[in-house]
Specification:
single chain; about 230 residues; mainly alpha; 2 domains; two-stranded antiparallel sheet; 2 strands; disordered N terminus
Length: about 230
């Protein structure tokens, strides 16, 4: 009888500590509700975090024009305590219009932090860095290098500003707002909205997304000046 009571007490103690094994995941719940995946501790790296989380959800606001630059491992490492606070502890980041980290992303980031934020994976096998393609005056290049990072999070189907879509060149050229007037960049609504002098500049300041830099603006203008053909 005493043995049964003792075993029951031990089981309660273990469950209250927050440890459980679930499909190979060892979850540890502390005051900060940290969850990490023990099975990938030796596989996580900066490059993995960069491609899965930082580039799609952070860099648009935290690039070289922001106060907190997360474009390099050194800069990310220098802000790691703050990153842990706002993404893991309080979950205040990412902010709208970007979606919050899903369970998989949250667990991946928490695991990387728990592993000591290694630049290279502990098992020595890293994923290749993303291929950097030069910005060119074509729609595909502009969409990949500018719109996907700074615009489509709002201006695409199902998003907050889907009324003004930027998914395709036809969306821009056929827009009733005269977003793109082929051959006439100076009067195209898209260009007027991204200039530093715009009254309602895009991306909106409230989003925190970094404004287009001069080279990005000039590339869009060149594409339109060339007839916005591709």
């Amino acid at each position: 009888m005493y043995k049964l009571i003792f075993l029951f007490g031990i089981s309660l103690l273990i469950s209250s500590c927050g440890f459980r094994n679930d499909r190979g995941l060892l979850r540890f719940v502390s005051d900060n509700q940290i969850t990490y995946n023990q099975t990938i501790l030796n596989k996580v790296s900066y490059q993995l975090i960069n491609q899965r989380i930082l580039i799609p959800k952070c860099i648009s606001c935290h690039g070289d024009s922001g106060h907190v630059n997360l474009e390099t491992y050194a800069s990310v490492y220098s802000f790691i305590d703050k990153i842990k606070e706002v993404t893991i502890s309080t979950r205040k980041m990412p902010k709208s219009p970007y979606s919050a980290l899903n369970n998989e992303e949250f667990e991946l980031l928490a695991t990387w932090i728990h592993a000591g934020t290694p630049e290279k994976p502990l098992n020595g096998t890293d994923i290749p860095p993303p291929k950097i393609e030069p910005l060119e005056p074509t729609f595909l290049s502009i969409k990949k290098n500018i719109f996907q990072n700074k615009c489509l999070v709002c201006h695409s189907i199902g998003k907050e500003a889907e009324r003004v879509r930027l998914d395709t060149a036809d969306d821009l050229i056929n827009s009733p707002l005269d977003l793109v007037l082929p051959g006439n960049p100076d009067e195209s609504g898209l260009v007027l909205a991204i200039l530093p002098t715009a009254r309602k500049i895009m991306p909106p300041k409230k989003t925190g997304i970094v404004f287009l830099n001069p080279s990005e603006i000039e590339m869009i203008k060149e594409w339109i000046a060339n007839g916005a053909k591709d």
